[in-house]
Structures are given as structure tokens and as C-alpha cells.
Amino acid sequence: MNRLLPCFAAVAIIADPVAAANAPSKAERDRQISEIVFKNYPPRALAAGEQGAVFFVVELDRDAHPISCQVTHGSGHPLLDAETCELIVQHAVFKSARDAHGRLTKTKAEGVVNWAILGRAQEPINPIPLTDNTAPEKQICKKTVRAGTLAGVERTCMTATEWARRTDQMKQSWDDLQGRKGSTSGLPPCVEPCGTTLSNILSDPDFTGNSPPR
Q: What's the CA gap between 192 and 108, in Å, rounded?
């Protein structure tokens, strides 16, 4: 498992910096980071002055894109804990890992987001171990069809509960569509076997598209 190096300042996201010849200056990078931080700081936590460090583990694919993110130690503030992995999968940048043969490989990395409000004294880091019952739901990332396209894909990250809700909504939409077509087309009923059925498509664990399967 890789231990990541500090990348963010105001919210200290621990991540491997990606080297670039035209990297912005530290002042410009801090300004950009501050904007990201305060756009994502939970409003109720900010209003209540809540601060603290949240530790996480993120799984990365061969291209260093997040596959999943799980909070392991909390800050004592559930809102900050719940927001941490969403911030990581949306904004953190990681460095690709290679195996002993120089080939790109999947990896895991651990880090910490130190939620801090500018102008206020920072809280001492006091990580609170979390269990399956007390930790926020893991963020799970999948490739999905980009809305409005036939072939474009994008990475979407949600919790298992949100993925299940989305699947149920898609099934309901297809059920409604089938019902309308069945009542107006006048076509004879399909007798098995008759090709791939809707239930087979929607039960495919790899299907997560936004658009109707083709």
C-alpha cells in the first residue's frame, strides 16, 4: 500500500503530486485548493465550526483513477467524515503505480483530509477508529455512459445504496416503457427463446449505463 504525500493545504489531502513542467506556483495552487475546499465544506459543519482529520483508504486502477474510497478513522464529526471520500474521488490526483516488471498495476493508497477553517485554530489530530456500523458508506466508482452520447463514457462514484437506488429507477423506467409499448404496438407476445431480454440486460452486473442498452 502506498502512503501518499501532502498535496492540499487548507484541506490537507494526502496524495502523490503529479509532476508537470508547467506546474502552477505554490500560491496559485493554494488558491485553487482553497476554492475546492470551501465549495465542498459541508455547510452545517462550516457554520458549526467543525474541524478535524479524516483518514481514508482509496483503491486505484491501472490509470490511477479511484475504484473505491473508504473512511477508516473519523474526525468526530459525521458530516466531515461523510464528505471526505466524495472529495477524494472527485478532486484528488494520484500517481500511477508499477509492478516489479515496470507494468502499470492496481494499487491501494492511504491518506488523510485535515478539514480546517481558515482563520481558526486547527484541532489536534485525534483519529477515531470506525467500524462498518459507524463509518460512512464506501464510495464505489464505475464507468458509465455519458449522458447525451452513444459511446462516450465517464466515471461515476456513488455509495452502494445510491447505486442500488439508481438501478431500481432504471428498471422502473424500462418497465413503464415496456408497458406502454405492449399496450399499443399490437405485436404478438414473445415466446422464449427470443434473444436478449430486458431482465437479462438489467441484471448484468457490468451494466451501469445512463442510456438504454444497445
A: 45
